[in-house]
Amino acid sequence: MFSPITRAWKRFEQSRPDAAQFAMFALISTGMTVLQLALMPILKALFNGTSLVDVNFQVMALGASGDGGQYFVFDYAAGALPDGGGGLAYFLAVQVTIGIAQVINFFLQRNVTFKSNSNPWRAAMWYFIAYVVITFLAAVAQGFYKVPVYNLFIGTWGMGASGETLADVVTMLINAGISVVVFFPIFKIIFKRVPEDETPVAVAEEKALTV
């Protein structure tokens, strides 16, 4: 059943390796976005059922926001959305969701998309650094669109709980879009594929033969 598709993909991969690589990267990234969309409501419900929703989490002030208030990189004011910012409960739901997806994404992108044979621990270290940097970038961006998106769906359009779910989807898709744009060129560097005769195993065997 999948044989014609597999053969067509192999031909495409051989004729357009860079395009095929990006297509696989985008496909896996889309799968991770779907996973996040599935996990987010579950984790959000779990954390919202605790007192963490009333714990203020506004850190890393960067000056004034557009409405004259204080601007925070991580802006999760205490209280349920949209009147509050979701508190520590919302922050944890977002970060745990993204964290789970990124761990799975690391292995799939390394082994399937880029077929990397470089040092996995070094790649994991740089992946983690990239993840932290992108988390901060996404948090800064979220400070501009999070409140308006939730106000639009819940307040302006009066969609209530359904509006909150849709706003979750929109914010998650925006985060995913930022990740796709930023991660691909970084992955090209992190997940290198060196010639087989230059891999650590081959080098070790060569040294052993020369002793």
Care to describe what's here?
The chain is built from six helices and two strands. It has helices at 3-15, 17-48, 87-113, 120-156, 160-190, 200-210, and strands at 57-64, 70-76. It is elongated. Mean pLDDT is 80; it is low at 205-211.
The share of residues in helices is over 70%
Structure annotation, total helices: 6
The multimeric state of the shown protein is single chain
Radius of gyration: 21 Å
Unreliable sequence segments: 205-211
What can be said about this structure in brief?
With 211 residues, the chain is mainly alpha-helical. The protein has helices at residues 3-15, 17-48, 87-113, 120-156, 160-190, 200-210, and strands at residues 57-64, 70-76. It contains 6 helices and 2 strands; from the N terminus they run ααββαααα.
Features:
single chain, 211 residues, mainly alpha, two-stranded antiparallel sheet, 2 strands, 72% helix, elongated, disordered C terminus
List the helices and strands and how they pair.
Elements: H1 3-15, H2 17-48, E1 57-64, E2 70-76, H3 87-113, H4 120-156, H5 160-190, H6 200-210
Antiparallel strand pairs: 1-2
Helix pairs in contact: 1-2, 2-3, 2-5, 4-5
